[in-house]
Design brief:
Length: 140
């Protein structure tokens, strides 16, 4: 199995409810290592740049507003098949469809305010990690 890195974001709905530790425990229990982490406040423009791929979607403006509404915790998770494993631990985008025991099933409030983001493929993981972190900030 390949060791991979993936970008994770603990979103404003979760940081506001003080859920960072509970969410991190889910990652660690699944064998993912948090090899970089910082709590930051995004501007709406920065959120828009990160989610540029969704620019044409009807929810884009709402998504950017939300991501800038309170601090987020950005992280690099490392482990065997980390990208797929993280998506498994997060659960489906819409919490109504998320399997029991996943982060979104337990904590997410709605499809928009869904507690976590995770990269969906190796190329996007690379891009998303470098959006937030320099190589020096990632200590495996
Ligand atoms: P995320 O994995 O961060 O990637 C894009 C985000 O857009 C997604 O999680 C959701 O939070 C958000 N999103 C997707 N669909 C909708 C929707 N219908 N309404 C609001 N936000 C959405």
């Amino acid at each position: 199995m390949a060791t991979e890195r993936t970008l994770s974001i603990i979103k404003p709905d979760a940081t506001k409810r003080n859920l960072t530790g509970k969410i991190n425990a889910k990652f660690e229990e699944a064998g993912l290592r948090i090899v970089a982490q910082k709590r930051i406040q995004l501007s709406k423009a920065q959120a828009g740049a990160f989610y540029a791929v969704h620019k044409e979607r009807p929810f884009y403006d709402e998504l950017c507003e939300f991501m800038a509404s309170a601090p987020v915790v950005v992280q690099v998770l490392e482990g065997d098949n980390a990208i797929a494993k993280n998506r498994e631990v997060m659960g489906a985008t819409n919490p109504a469809d998320a399997d029991a025991g996943t982060i979104r099933a337990e904590f997410a409030e709605s499809v928009g305010e869904n507690s976590v983001h995770g990269s969906d493929a190796p190329d996007t993981a690379k891009e998303e990690i470098s959006f937030f972190f320099s190589g020096l900030e990632i200590v495996g």
